[in-house]
Amino acid sequence: VNPVATPGNDIPPAAPPPILCAASLGALRQSVIDAFASHDANRMAGLMLWSGYGRGTAIADIRSLGALMKQPLLDVGTPDDPAPGDDPPAPAPATSGADPSAPSTPPAPPPANAQLVLHTAGNDGSGSPHELRFNVISRAGCLWLRNAD
């Protein structure tokens, strides 16, 4: 039995939706920078892992994110990164044995205690930057932020 052809039956199946979460620490860092650039607290909240939060805590944290996003982002990095204004470390020497045509390896998962450290302009009038730390959590192939209490 041949099914009757109807308009629209020849449409190929839709491609799977793109993965919109960060798969690497660099991608997560860039997503934070993008959220601050657009002053988008919802975008920042979308980078966070919310499981285990009570309703009141989540609401308070989202309000805090709204206030945070109004501050200029000065720097975002890991605790091991040099402080803003320090000289960057010297680049590692290039190895001649590397094959530039070799397939790239998938990004390594973050270290067990990985964190992103944000420095924003303080809003207390002192001129001192404000530091906020987020733990980096790996779940379902994505990296997420969680407040480091």
Helix content: 10-25%
Major β-sheet, in short?
Answer: 4 strands, antiparallel
Give me the strand/helix succession: HHHEEEE
Report strand %: 15-25%
Total number of helical segments? 3
Kindly, what is the distance between the CA atoms of the first and last residues, rounded to a whole number of angstroms? 64 Å
> What is the molecular shape?
globular
The total count of strands amounts to 4
Instruction: Provide the spatial order of strands within the biggest beta sheet.
Output: 1-2-3-4
Class from helix and strand fractions:
alpha+beta
Low-confidence stretches: 85-105
Q: Taking Cα atoms only, what radius of gyration do you get, to the nearest Å?
A: 21 Å
What is the overall pLDDT average? 76
Account of the 3D structure:
The chain has 149 residues and is α+β, with helices and mostly antiparallel strands. The protein contains three helices and four strands. It has a four-stranded antiparallel sheet with strand order 1-2-3-4, covered by helices on one side. The longest helix has 14 residues, at 55-68.
